[in-house]
Specification:
- By secondary structure, the chain is α/β, with parallel strands linked by helices.
- The chain has a single domain, classed as Alpha-Beta Barrel (TIM Barrel).
- The protein is built from 14 helices and 8 strands.
- Strands 2-1-8-7-6-5-4-3 form an 8-stranded parallel β-sheet.
- Helix 3 packs parallel to helix 5.
- The chain is globular, with a radius of gyration of 18 Å.
Length: 282
Amino acid sequence: MSYLEKLRTIQEKNDSWLCVGLDPDPARLRVDVLKQDEPVLPFNRAIIEATADLVCAYKPNLGFYLMWGAAGVIALERTIASIPDEIPVILDCKAGDIGNTQAAWAMGLFDEWAVDAVTVNPFIGEDAVLPMIGERPDNAVYILARTSNPSAALFQGDLAAGEGLSAEVLRRSQKWQTAGHKGYVIGATYPEELAVARELAPQANFLIPGIGAQGGSLESAVRYGPDEVAGPVISASRSILYADMSGDFAGAAREAADKVRRQINALRTYDFRDSSSLRSTE
């Protein structure tokens, strides 16, 4: 099954475009959780068990596992294995190196850890993408096009005007011939640029971060996120994982995830061509 087929299947089953980021931050975990010998895996498993019927994907970020050292890497591998097979796993690692190094990344992440997709930095060009999914039809990469951080425009340019590095990435990378799917990371913190990105990449799946703690536009993510095959992967991490660490953190995470999922699904019913449709539901 291709990545997009797997994604669409779980989106339909769970009626969800929500992706939960699995980012275990020791600065945010409760003291009793941290007192466990290996706190990362039990925490992640509790979140997965509480939210598996509400999501379309999970997205662990590699940095939040490296900060725990070797134990964190082991926890990441076991976390990936703990995620139900029907739910796509997107490893957020932003790999972006020359061809033989990228091939090594691909062997480790796709062949050994069996993740479904990874994020890729395209700064060096197609050599960062072809070794990953050139011959892997069941996998995908999400190419960084417009990231959600405040200083993104410094090098990425004015995507709203169709100019700069982000626009060039979207235009040129679609010409690269790959067996796997090329999707794009488009941050919801730049809502006006989501529309331009969709025009430039009409068939690509979008991974859209920034709708939670970063305050991005959920409306724009829903309006411009869908492609011809599947809905977007709308990601939230901190706002769900740490919704309430005072008591039942997994239960609180479930409530937060369900709230975002319901907000997304409500927006999916809007006729965005009719502004009164939006006003009537406010």
